[in-house]
C-alpha cells in the first residue's frame, strides 16, 4: 500500500499503545501518571494505597485492589499535547499473558517498562517477542532510577544483547538512587530536574545550550556534572542516534530514564509518543488489508469483559476501530452471525469510569455493552464480510475439573463458565463422556481469580479439583477422518465453548501416537479466533 493519501487529521492525531512489562516494574503506576498528565484525574492513585481515596484507577476488580496486581487489561482514552491517547494497560503477571498477547493485536506501539535495578526480566522477553512478531514499534522506559539501580550503559547493553534491538538514549540520568536528581534531554539539550517533595508535581525543564553551558553548574553538583559530560560524550560516540524510520520499523527503541512514582520522566515519554509514535496503522484481514483512512467503519473485538459493573451483569466487548468515522447509533453488521447490530450506547473508557461515545475514529478503542453476542475475534463492518487475522487462542497448560459445592447450582455454574470462556479468561471443555466441565488456564493464579469471580459475581462457591488430563489440543482434518478418530478416542474428547472438537491428553506419548495412527488428523496448540 504505497503512495497512500494523508490521514484525516482526526485519525492522524490518534496514538494507540499498550504498556508491557514484567510484574512489579511499575507499569500501573506509570499508567496512573499518564492519566494525571492527560488531565483525566486530579491525583494519581497508588497500587498499595491507604484508604479508598487514592486507589489506582486502572485496577477495577476487587481482587486487583486486594493484591496490588493487574489481572485484566483495561483501556483508557485521554487527550495530551493535541493528540488523543488510547492506552491499554496489560497484566504483567505471566499467568495472564494470553490477555496481553491479544491486547497487542489491537495497538500500534508498545511501551516496555524496565526496572532500573533488575534490567530485562523473563516476562519482558516473552512480551517483546510478541511485539517483534508483529513488528510493533517499542518505546522503552527505564523506571525506578530513584532507587539503587545498575549502570546506565549496562542496562542499555543488556537490552541490545537480550532483545537484539538497537537502543537510542533520548534522555540520560544524572546520578542514581539517592543521588538521582533528574535527566539530561539528549534530543533537545535541556535539563529536566526532579522534585522529590511533591510526587504529583510536573518536573521543571531548564533550557540550556549543550553540556558546556555554565548555567548547568547552578543545578548539578560538580562531580555529577563531570560524570554526566563524560557519559553523554561516550553515549553519543558508541550508541546510535535516534532514527524515527528505524523505530517505526521495529529495529530501534528510544529509551527514557525516570521514576514513575515521582512523576519524573513521564511527561518526556508522553511527548515522545505524540511526536514520534505511529498513527493508526493498516490492519490485516483474511480478505485484504484495511487502511485507517477508508470511509467505511470496520473494527474487531480483542477482549470481552464480563460484569465490569456487577449490578448490571453486563458484558463489554472492547473493539479496536480499524477504519472510518464511527458515530453513535450506527448500524453495523456482526460478520459472524451476519446480523445487523445497532450500536446505540458505545462507551469510551476512563479506567473504571465510562462515558457515552458520540463518535470515534480509526485507532480508537470503544466498548460495546452486549449480552453475549460479541466474542473475541468478531468483526463489525458496514456490510463487508471481513475476518481479521492474528488474534490467538492458546492451548491451556493446566486443566482442572470444576464443580459447584451446591449441586442445585450446577446449571448456573454452566452459564458462568460459558461467560468466562467467551471473555477469554479461561478455556472451558465439556467432555463427550460424563458430566461436569474441565477448565483450562495458562497459569495457576487464574484458578484463584476464577473461583473468586464466580463466587462474587454469580454467588456460586466452587471447587477446582485435579483432572486426569494435562493438556488440550484442537482437532482438525477431513471430516470422515475426524469422525472415525472421534469414534475410537471418545474418552479423550471434549468440545470447547465454540463447539470445536478438542483432544485432551495425559502425556506427550498420546499426541505422538495420534500422529502415528492418524496421519491425516492435525492436533494444534493454538487456534486463531477468526469467525
From TrEMBL:
One GO location term (cellular component): cytosol
Query: GO biological process annotations for this chain's record?
Result: regulation of translational termination
The keyword Metal-binding is assigned to this record = no
Query: In which compartments does the protein localize?
Result: Cytoplasm
Residue numbers binding GTP: 21-28, 89-93, 143-146
Offer one Pfam family short name for this entry: GTP_EFTU
Q: Which UniProt keywords apply?
A: Cytoplasm, GTP-binding, Nucleotide-binding, Protein biosynthesis
Boundaries of every Tr-type G domain copy: 12-281
One MF term in the entry's GO annotations: GTPase activity
The function of this protein is: Increases the formation of ribosomal termination complexes and stimulates activities of RF-1 and RF-2. It binds guanine nucleotides and has strong preference for UGA stop codons. It may interact directly with the ribosome. The stimulation of RF-1 and RF-2 is significantly reduced by GTP and GDP, but not by GMP.
Q: Which family does it belong to?
A: Belongs to the TRAFAC class translation factor GTPase superfamily. Classic translation factor GTPase family. PrfC subfamily.
Q: Which PANTHER family match?
A: PEPTIDE CHAIN RELEASE FACTOR RF3
The protein in question is named Peptide chain release factor 3
Q: Which gene encodes it?
A: prfC
Amino acid at each position: 500500500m504505497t503512495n497512500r493519501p494523508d490521514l484525516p487529521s482526526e485519525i492522524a492525531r490518534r496514538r494507540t499503545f499498550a504498556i508491557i512489562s514484567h510484574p512489579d516494574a511499575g507499569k500501573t503506576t506509570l499508567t496512573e501518571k499518564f492519566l494525571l498528565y492527560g488531565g483525566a484525574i486530579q491525583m494519581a492513585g497508588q497500587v498499595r494505597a491507604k484508604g479508598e481515596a487514592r486507589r489506582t484507577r486502572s485496577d477495577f476488580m476487587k481482587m486487583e485492589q486486594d493484591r496490588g496486581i493487574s489481572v485484566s487489561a483495561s483501556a483508557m482514552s485521554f487527550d495530551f499535547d493535541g493528540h488523543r491517547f488510547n492506552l491499554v494497560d496489560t497484566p504483567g503477571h505471566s499467568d495472564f499473558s494470553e490477555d496481553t498477547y491479544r491486547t497487542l493485536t489491537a495497538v500500534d506501539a508498545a511501551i516496555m517498562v524496565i526496572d532500573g535495578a533488575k534490567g530485562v526480566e523473563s516476562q519482558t522477553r516473552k512480551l517483546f517477542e510478541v511485539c517483534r512478531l508483529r513488528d510493533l514499534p517499542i518505546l522503552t522506559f527505564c523506571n525506578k532510577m530513584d532507587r539503587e539501580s545498575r549502570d546506565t550503559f549496562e542496562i542499555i547493553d543488556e537490552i541490545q544483547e537480550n532483545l537484539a534491538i538497537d537502543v537510542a538514549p533520548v534522555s540520560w540520568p544524572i546520578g542514581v538512587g539517592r543521588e538521582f536528581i533528574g535527566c539530561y534531554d539528549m534530543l533537545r539539550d535541556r535539563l529536566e530536574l526532579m522534585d522529590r517533595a511533591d510526587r504529583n508535581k510536573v518536573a521543571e525543564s531548564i533550557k540550556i545550550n549543550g553540556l558546556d553551558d555554565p548555567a548547568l553548574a547552578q543545578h548539578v553538583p560538580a562531580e555529577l556534572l563531570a560524570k554526566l559530560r563524560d557519559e553523554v560524550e561516550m553515549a553519543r560516540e558508541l550508541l546510535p542516534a535516534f532514527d524515527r524510520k528505524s523505530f517505526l520499523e521495529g529495529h530501534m527503541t528510544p529509551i527514557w530514564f525516570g521514576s514513575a512514582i515521582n512523576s519524573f520522566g513521564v511527561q518526556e515519554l508522553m511527548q515522545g509518543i505524540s511526536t514520534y509514535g505511529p498513527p493508526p496503522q493498516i490492519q490485516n484481514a483474511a480478505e485484504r488489508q484495511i487502511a485507517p483512512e477508508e470511509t467505511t467503519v470496520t473494527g474487531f473485538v480483542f477482549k470481552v469483559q464480563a460484569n465490569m459493573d456487577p449490578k448490571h451483569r453486563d458484558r463489554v466487548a472492547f473493539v479496536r476501530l480499524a477504519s472510518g468515522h464511527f458515530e453513535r447509533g450506527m448500524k453495523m453488521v456482526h460478520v459472524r452471525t451476519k446480523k445487523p447490530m445497532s450500536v446505540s450506547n458505545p462507551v469510551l473508557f476512563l479506567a473504571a469510569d465510562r462515558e457515552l461515545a458520540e463518535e470515534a475514529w480509526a485507532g480508537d478503542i470503544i466498548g460495546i455493552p452486549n449480552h453475549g453476542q460479541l466474542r473475541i475475534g468478531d468483526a463489525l463492518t458496514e456490510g463487508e464480510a471481513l475476518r481479521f487475522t492474528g488474534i490467538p487462542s492458546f492451548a491451556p497448560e493446566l486443566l482442572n475439573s470444576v464443580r459447584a459445592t451446591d449441586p442445585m447450582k450446577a446449571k448456573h455454574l454452566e452459564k458462568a463458565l460459558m461467560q468466562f470462556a467467551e471473555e477469554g479468561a479461561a478455556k472451558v471443555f465439556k467432555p463427550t463422556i460424563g458430566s461436569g466441565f474441565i477448565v483450562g488456564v495458562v497459569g495457576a493464579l487464574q484458578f484463584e481469580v476464577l473461583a473468586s469471580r464466580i463466587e462474587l459475581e454469580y454467588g456460586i462457591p466452587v471447587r477446582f479439583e485435579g483432572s486426569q488430563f494435562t493438556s488440550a489440543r484442537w482437532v482438525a482434518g477431513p471430516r470422515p477422518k475426524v469422525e472415525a478418530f472421534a469414534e475410537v478416542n471418545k474418552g479423550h474428547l471434549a468440545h470447547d465453548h465454540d463447539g470445536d472438537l478438542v483432544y485432551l491428553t495425559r502425556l506427550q506419548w498420546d499426541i505422538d501416537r495420534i500422529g502415528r495412527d492418524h496421519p491425516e488428523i492435525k492436533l494444534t496448540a493454538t487456534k486463531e479466533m477468526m469467525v
